[in-house]
Design the sequence.
């Protein structure tokens, strides 16, 4: 019996220790997940976004709006149009007085910026739960707060994602060329006997319909690549990608710099605008006051013991 | 009966062009990023410079410059001629300019790259200037313009200062003509035209800078027509801004005042290069700032001397201390020199007048006028009081049957209230102890609304300097610190004079511990690393400058805004105290039963 008891005791000990280890491990994993993702920050509202992969920060297009884009021009146009929309919204926030509230600290609507932040994996953080703590997966992602002051950070992160996308495309030059994806959007292609080729180059050799799809809509098995193509086009594509990063950085940096004055003085301007509105009320109030004051001599012009109405009074004319 | 006259004071936001400023920067950044895009002025400059290359010069065309940037030597080098028109044979090889084809190409590429880099740095500098002072530039960028906002407040409080006049729809058709003229311009021409009319159409007509080409002639006539429709008079001394509708040109705005009309960039994005020329000596300095905002020695004759400077012609800028120079004083200063900067010791100021007491500083005066049928405002001078107004005499303003008028402003309303109180009180014989406000025949020591306080300055010393302390200038230390950082990063020793160390890759510290072969294989990566670091260094000054801007603006704004905030706070408290005043028991306390305690 003592041996059996000791055996049972050992089993219980192992069980308890395992349970403790499991709990410690789970808690550690939970904490670590939050730490890895930078935590949730302080305050602010957040909304869930389950469509994204778990939050991470890497130099990749994975999980971003550029994930499925393999065309440099397409990526550039998407970046420029998105930045244009976000900047336009920002400028409107900074200059449209109808958005300014003087009576309550209401958050200004920033749907475009929020949408952009929601598309950035790094603007999310992983939220742990007991399940993810126990099994190491099943995290949910939450959007970090998007505030008025977040603009530069979100745009900066978007620029980083775009630069990573361009670098990724640059490193995939051979793959891109072999899929005819180094041509600008709208380029016409057609099938020839050797494969899918750019229609202008193929000229009269087209055997199929002309289309703007780089794979000729699947009519032919592969892109036509000559040795000259393989020698020149990847290098040309790669060289074309380099200035795209430079251009984006210059444009974003100058935009943020130029808006600096607006950003810095926004609160001052807003308060001055509010003061102007309040002053209009004050103007009406003082006008009423002066209107009432015009009656003062009549009100006071009554015969009382205090009033000297003698014509000999030194102060009455 | 009092008749209050109100001046139309429109507070309506001006509309702005919808295009995003990023779109503009995105277009302009293409020139910086893509090597094969060469601004026309740079191309022209290269063509001019090439005429001095070699013994006989080389004649280049625009296509030659483009071919060089694309590395197309066959297109570049065939059929070249010298300035005399004789065929020029360029040898092969990589010898220096201009004896070889490759040397010619490299010379062009180097020159274009240097000029584009200079333009990029100038644009960065402009962006920093924009970041620093766009909203304080006193240009009508409604609503993000502090001077305009202050101007509005000034009008509401004091009913003085510039007024804002509505746009006359009759000028809409002419505005369409202006839009068409601007739309027809190429990008570089648009820059030139906006620059030309930045400080006004009439100012341009006075200045007649012959460096401007004919590109803006149609815009000039359109502006002239609009000026006529809006009754803009260059000799007007009225201070009024005219509200302008937005133009259809992205980032370009129209401004108008009573005395001039012009164009502006809503956000200045790129510095305009008038022309490029070979410097005769290095460093070359070109006088190029006469029609910028700050110089005060402006050519041409102006009927109003204070408007000779563009800065001082603006409706709020004219109040700045730079526009109110201290009258010339006969200072006994020694030594005086004109060719160098030296510390000067002045023995004694011949007069003590300071900036705050110069002529532009109006003494506070809020008169009340007799309403005898004369309009309060001069119909020919918007916002200005009618010259035939007669001041109402003291003691007759609030009398029964008196009709007076004054501008609608908070201060004027309070002044009128004050006058009525004084007149009411002055008609009474007050028993001492019964009324704590005024004793028997006591009267006010002064009437603040009708004449300046004779005791002004007795108790409050007027500072000799401007009340807004300017932040310390830290440019020198910034340059020194940046130079040190730059030189440390690039491996060079910091030069005692800032900005003279250069990047030297051979001196850059390396930590290669691998074999020479591996090191060679890393050459490409090394170049990338160097490029990255150089890019970091290029953006570092922007970051430093932004921090500097923030630090300096905080000091200035804190100083300027704190008194304003304190004033608003006091005014707010005053109004709130009125709510706490106990209402009287009777309509008039002197006609009702006299409380027993009042007789004691």
Sequence:
């Amino acid at each position: 019996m003592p041996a059996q008891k000791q055996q049972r005791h050992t089993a219980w000990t192992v069980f308890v220790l395992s349970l403790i280890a499991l709990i410690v491990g789970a808690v550690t994993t939970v904490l670590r997940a939050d730490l890895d993702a930078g935590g949730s920050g302080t305050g602010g509202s957040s909304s869930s976004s389950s469509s994204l992969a778990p939050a991470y920060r890497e130099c990749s297009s994975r999980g971003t709006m550029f994930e499925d884009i393999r065309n440099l021009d397409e990526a550039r146009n998407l970046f420029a149009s998105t930045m244009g929309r976000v900047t336009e919204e920002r400028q409107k926030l900074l200059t449209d007085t109808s958005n300014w509230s003087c009576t309550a600290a209401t958050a200004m609507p920033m749907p475009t910026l929020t949408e952009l932040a929601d598309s950035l994996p790094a603007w999310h953080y992983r939220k742990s739960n007991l399940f993810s703590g126990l099994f190491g997966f099943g995290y949910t992602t939450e959007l970090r707060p998007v505030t008025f002051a977040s603009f530069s950070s979100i745009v900066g992160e978007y620029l980083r994602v775009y630069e990573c996308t361009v670098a990724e495309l640059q490193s995939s030059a051979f793959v891109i060329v072999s899929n005819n994806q180094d041509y600008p959007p709208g380029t016409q292609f057609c099938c020839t006997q050797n494969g899918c080729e750019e229609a202008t180059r193929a000229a009269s050799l087209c055997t199929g319909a002309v289309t703007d799809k780089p794979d000729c809509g699947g009519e032919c098995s592969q892109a036509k690549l000559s040795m000259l193509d393989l020698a020149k086009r990847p290098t040309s594509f790669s060289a074309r990608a380099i200035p795209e990063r430079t251009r984006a950085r210059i444009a974003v940096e100058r935009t943020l710099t130029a808006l600096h004055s607006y950003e810095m003085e926004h609160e001052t301007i807003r308060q001055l605008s509010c003061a102007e509105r309040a002053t209009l009320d004050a103007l009406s109030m003082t006008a009423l006051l002066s209107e009432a004051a015009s009656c003062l001599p009549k009100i006071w012009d009554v015969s009382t013991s205090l009033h000297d109405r003698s014509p000999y009074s030194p102060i009455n004319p | 009966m009092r008749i209050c006259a109100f001046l139309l004071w429109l507070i309506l936001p001006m509309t702005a062009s919808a295009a995003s400023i990023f779109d503009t920067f995105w277009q302009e950044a293409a020139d910086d990023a893509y090597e094969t895009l060469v601004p026309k002025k740079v191309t022209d400059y290269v063509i001019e410079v090439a005429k001095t290359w070699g013994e006989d010069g080389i004649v280049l065309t625009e296509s030659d410059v483009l071919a060089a940037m694309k590395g197309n030597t066959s297109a570049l080098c065939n059929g070249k001629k010298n300035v005399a028109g004789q065929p020029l044979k360029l040898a092969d090889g990589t010898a220096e300019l201009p004896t070889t084809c490759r040397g010619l190409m490299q010379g062009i590429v180097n020159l274009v790259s240097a000029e584009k880099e200079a333009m990029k740095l100038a644009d960065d500098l402009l962006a920093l200037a924009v970041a620093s002072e766009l909203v304080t530039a006193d240009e009508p960028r409604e609503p993000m313009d502090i001077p305009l906002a202050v101007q509005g407040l000034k009008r509401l409080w004091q009913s003085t200062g510039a007024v804002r006049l509505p746009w006359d729809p009759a000028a809409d058709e002419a505005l369409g003509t202006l839009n068409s003229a601007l739309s027809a311009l190429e990008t570089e021409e648009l820059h030139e035209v906006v620059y030309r009319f930045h400080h006004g159409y009439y100012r341009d007509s006075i200045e007649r800078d012959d460096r401007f080409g004919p590109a803006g002639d149609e815009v000039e006539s359109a502006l002239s027509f609009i000026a006529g429709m809006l009754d803009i008079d260059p000799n007007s001394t009225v201070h009024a801004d005219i509200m302008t509708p937005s133009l259809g040109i992205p980032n370009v705005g129209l401004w108008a005042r009573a005395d001039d009309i012009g164009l502006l960039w809503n956000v200045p994005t790129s510095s305009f290069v008038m022309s490029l020329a070979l410097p005769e000596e290095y460093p070359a300095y070109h006088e190029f700032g006469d029609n910028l905002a700050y110089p005060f020695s402006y050519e041409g004759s102006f009927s109003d001397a204070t408007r000779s400077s563009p800065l001082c012609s603006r409706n709020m800028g004219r109040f700045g201390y730079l526009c109110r120079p201290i009258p010339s004083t006969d200072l006994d200063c020694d030594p005086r020199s004109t060719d160098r900067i030296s510390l000067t010791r002045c023995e004694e100021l011949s007069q003590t007048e300071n900036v705050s007491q110069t002529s532009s500083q109006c003494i506070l005066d809020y008169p009340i006028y007799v309403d005898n049928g004369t309009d309060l405002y001069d119909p020919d001078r918007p916002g200005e009081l009618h010259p035939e107004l007669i001041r109402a005499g003291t003691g007759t303003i609030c009398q029964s049957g008196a009709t007076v008028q004054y501008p609608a402003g908070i201060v004027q309303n309070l002044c009128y209230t004050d006058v009525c109180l004084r007149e009411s009180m002055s008609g009474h014989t007050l028993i001492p102890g019964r009324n704590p406000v005024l004793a028997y025949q006591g009267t006010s020591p002064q009437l603040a609304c009708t004449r300046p306080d004779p005791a002004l300055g007795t108790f409050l010393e007027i500072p000799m300097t401007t009340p807004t302390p300017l932040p310390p200038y830290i440019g020198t230390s910034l340059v020194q610190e940046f130079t040190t950082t730059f030189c440390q990063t690039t491996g060079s020793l910091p030069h005692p004079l800032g900005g003279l160390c250069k990047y030297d890759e051979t001196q850059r510290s390396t930590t290669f511990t691998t074999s020479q072969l591996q090191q060679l294989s890393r050459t490409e990566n090394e170049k990338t690393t160097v490029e990255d670091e150089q890019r970091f260094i290029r953006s570092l000054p922007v970051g430093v400058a932004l921090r500097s801007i923030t630090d300096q603006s905080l000091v200035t704004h804190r100083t300027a805004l704190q008194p304003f905030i304190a004033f608003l706070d006091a005014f707010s408290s005053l109004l709130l105290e009125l709510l706490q005043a106990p209402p009287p028991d009777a309509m008039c306390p002197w006609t009702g039963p006299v409380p027993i305690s009042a007789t004691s």
